[in-house]
Amino acid sequence: MFEHGGVDRLPKRIILVRPGESEGNRDGSTYSTVPDHQIALTQQGISQARHAGTQIRQVVSASDSLPETWKVYFYVSPYTRTRSSLREIARSFPRKCVIGVREECRIREQDFGNFQITEDMKVIKDVRQRFGRFFYRFPEGESAADVYDRVSSKCFVDDLS
Question: What is the pLDDT of residues 79-95, one digit of tens each?
Answer without folding.
Answer: 999 999 999 999 999 99
